Amino acid sequence: MGMKAKELVIRAGIDLDALLKELNSAYCDEWLAYYQYWIGAKVAEGKMFALIAQELAEHAGEELEHAEKLAKRIIELGGTPAISPDLWLKDSTCGYLTPENPDAMHLLAQNIQGERCAIEVYEKLLNMVAGKDPITEHLVREILEDELEHEQDLEDLHNSCNASAKTCDPKPKAGRK
Ligand code: FE
Ligand code: FE
Ligand code: MG
């Protein structure tokens, strides 16, 4: 913990407990997003699965970096990042979408939903700190920028797939849900 880090936030009129709660929830979201992408990249199948799996794996790494940055700030502010995976689902805002259907198009749709939720989370956090806590504001802006890019990357893949019926068939394989 940094004494001054905490002091500056409180002096700026921010409810520190409320901020830590939101940061921790976002931290839990990031671990779930990381795993959803990571395992999605492993199980992906169907048309264009290799290309899509590559993007999912890349995003997994970026979600883990977000978790890293959030943990650092939570500790700096005297909080404790979720210390058990039990808390990830419990304290998460966006939850976890199990990739039961490994079709790459279905995985994309699930992850787009996750990114849209993440964008809402960081917009809310930004509103809490904007103009008051420059350090958290900077962190949240950086992550928000990444999440917007993630959403766009996945949408582009989804659209290019749908636009080209010959190379991309969004229908799941027979026998799958
Ligand atoms: Fe993230
Ligand atoms: Fe993301
Ligand atoms: Mg990307």
Write up what this structure looks like.
The protein is mainly α and 177 residues long. It has one domain: Ferritin, core subunit, four-helix bundle (Ferritin). Helices cover 72% and strands 0% of the residues. It is built from 6 helices and no strands. Helix 2 packs antiparallel against helix 3 and helix 5 runs antiparallel to helix 6. It binds fe (iii) ion (2 copies) and magnesium ion (MG). One fe (iii) ion binds next to helix 2, helix 3 and helix 6.
How would you summarize what this structure contains?
The chain is mainly α. It has helices spanning 3-11, 16-43, 49-76, 86-91, 104-129, 134-163.
Looking at CATH, which topology would you report? Ferritin
Bound molecules: fe (iii) ion, magnesium ion
Secondary-structure element order, N to C: HHHHHH
Separation of the first and last Cα atoms: 48 Å
CATH class assignment: Mainly Alpha
Helix content: over 70%
User: pLDDT below 50 for ≥5 consecutive residues: which ranges?
Assistant: 169-177
Count of helices? 6
What structural category do the secondary elements indicate?
Answer: mainly alpha
Q: Could you describe the largest sheet, including whether it forms a barrel?
A: none
- The radius of gyration over CA amounts to 18 Å
Give the count of structural domains: 1
The CATH superfamily bears the name Ferritin, core subunit, four-helix bundle
Shape: elongated
